[in-house]
Amino acid sequence: MKGVLLKDLYIAKSGIVIALVCLFVLAFGFSFLLDVSSVLMLAPAISTIAVYNSITSDASSKWNKNVITMPVSRDQIIGTKYILYILLSAAGIIVVLAALGILSLLGAAVTVYALLFNTSIGVSAALLAGGISLPCVYFFDPEKSQIVFLVSFIASSWIITALVLLINLFMPVKDNTLLAFYIVLAISFAWFVVSYKIASVLYRKRDIT
């Protein structure tokens, strides 16, 4: 499994570097326009694009036909994509936090509350979108996979809104904003785990051609 993950990282290396550099530069650009920490909401989405590049590369190179002859289970094949997704999400956040640290030293207003709030939204959106799109991209061609990827992030924003409205029925979100979004984050993580289970079952039943 480790070898498959390293293969994915190697294939996606150029895309990962470009995404992380863009995030670093974007953080400085936001400092002139908006709340600088709001870029944290975009960080996971931008940094995880490389996962889909890895999946489409596997399809075009017929890697899926070769890997099933190796001592790696189909659950592990799927699992590496989910692990890569988490790792890249974390990398995106770390890069942005580094940029924000530099900006704060330069005098930009960066608060702990804003960091926690924007990070929870960004990670929740990424987990929800990944949970939707990762099982789907294995069953679509590369062009349709890109559409699924974009639609999944739009859907994740709707889901987050719906969850916040639902939570507000039980407690006032305005008075417990961080707690409410931590609940959304927990639900998003649970959905991501369920998505992995669903993707594993579907991939085991799929004929590799």
Explain how this protein is built.
With 209 residues, the protein is mainly α. The protein has one domain. The two termini are 22 Å apart. It has helices at residues 2-11, 13-30, 43-47, 49-60, 63-67, 74-105, 112-137, 142-168, 177-205. The chain is globular, with a radius of gyration of 18 Å.
In terms of topology, how is this protein built?
Elements: H1 2-11, H2 13-30, H3 43-47, H4 49-60, H5 63-67, H6 74-105, H7 112-137, H8 142-168, H9 177-205
Helix pairs in contact: 1-6, 2-6, 4-6, 6-7, 6-9, 7-8, 7-9, 8-9
Structural class, from secondary structure content? Answer: mainly alpha
Counted up, domains total 1
Low-confidence stretches: none
User: From the alpha-carbon coordinates, what is the Rg to the nearest angstrom?
Assistant: 18 Å
DSSP helical segment count: 9
Give the distance, in angstroms, between the N- and C-terminal Cα atoms.
22 Å
Order of helices and strands: HHHHHHHHH
Strand content: under 5%
Please describe the structure with a list of short key phrases separated by commas or semicolons.
209 residues, mainly alpha, 9 helices
Short account of what is shown:
This protein has about 210 residues and is mainly alpha-helical. It has helices at about 1-10, 15-30, 45, 50-60, 65, 75-105, 110-135, 140-170, 175-205.
